[in-house]
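haha ok so turns out i had the wrong file open the whole time. this is the CORRECT one, sorry everyone. sequence first:
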Amino acid sequence: MIRRIPKYILLEIFPLFIMGNLFFIFLLLIDQLVRLADMLIVRSVPTSIVVSTIIFYMPSFLVLTIPISTLFATLLAFSRFSSDSELIAMQACGASNRTLFTPVVIFGIFAALLGIYFSTVLMPKGSMMAMGNLNKVLENLSVNDIRAKEMYADIPGLIFYANKKLDTENFNEVIVINTHNKAIIAAQKGSIVPNAGKSLNMSFEGGKFTMADYRDNYTSLNFEKMLINIPTNVTAELMPMNERFMNLTELKSKFQEAPIYRYEYIKRFTMPLSTIIMAVFGVLLGIFSQRSGRSFGVVIACVIAFGMNVMYIVGESFVSKYNPTLLGCLPIAVLSVILAVVWIRRFA
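then structure:
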């Protein structure tokens, strides 16, 4: 009978883990639903491109959802065991704490390894494939979609605003912001003419060009006429090298350039490894909810999950001031200390 308990626990946790990931992924997608609907309906982007882009970004979502889903899966499983007195029955059959926690730790290790694979291998690959889909989306780019007094950000790296639209190609009181090069063009008149070479010819009259250097010092230049050509075919060379899109080798090669790359490298491992701690935490909260009610355990689990993600976000803001390796390990260290305190209070 005791030998069947670990298998029974795993069979209870695994479906909750799957449903938890689906639920949290849906929450992450809600913010993008309006944009996806706009791509499908207004811009006539093929459904296959939209769906495949979501799939390519799925590893990025799973890196975030796997630890949280593990926490809630073990919490809900052991909360049910407690409320249905199954936990008492297991202990009456001779199940020790080791019997109860061993399958949970094994599941946590499995989820952690899965998360590491997603964060180190599939996430950068998926991001690059999504970039390829972006080129296909840009084939549906049309300057007809630009409206007066509305921000237009479909051109990669540019934000376009016009106070007045004269016709399809000509505008008055134009502002163009280049987010890649930190440059701003403000002109009285402007026009955008697409050509067959997958680029846009832009011309401006009577304006000011402002650009920032690497120290964020701004230089301005007045002009009467300006002509620029903007390629709409996005490649890896043209895209800004965001650390989240890099694989481990690329991150390692940039350790000396900025501390954010070392921080991202460490986070690729520590965030998935937190899954093991989350799994044990869920068990303790599930058992504790027998006394305090299931809702209390869920609230504590939400605080833990939210707190871990906040620590990673705050750590990213301080990488230039403090050791990025320590900041990357801080969330999992804090969780370990809290878990140790709860464990001692529960079983000491």
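The longest strand covers residues 199-212.
again sry for the mixup
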